[in-house]
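Structure ticket #2291
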Amino acid sequence: MRFTKEVVLDQPIERVRVLTSDPAHLHEWQPDLVGITHHTATPGAAGSTATLRYRKFTLEETVLSATADERVSRYRTPGMIHTITNRYSAVDDRHTLLVCDNEFELSGIMKLGRGVLEKSLREQVERNVDNFKAFIDAC
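Resolution: structure written out below.
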């Protein structure tokens, strides 16, 4: 399953870059996030890995690439791989466009519940992007 969510953020791209470069801000838009364990010296850099613990599940994150305006991360949990590409571009001097491409690969028992899971996963991503926008806009 693949889908894209786009949103215009009410902050200049320079401010968005600063806010998104610090993994400590994840708690601001992901309220179910309980904790993060970084496994590499430079969190958020290309090649870095981390364990993200949520209330109901745990994800293993690998940052595949990271630049000032694009970040590609892969999240694994049993039965699912979620790859996210976030791209940022300036709309004008006060607004930034976020394009969030998502790809989910399901396997095992997760594949059996694909129809229900697809709707739930899409809603969760959209909720996270909306929460992210609210956080950025409020900064």
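Closing remark: The chain has a mean pLDDT of 95.
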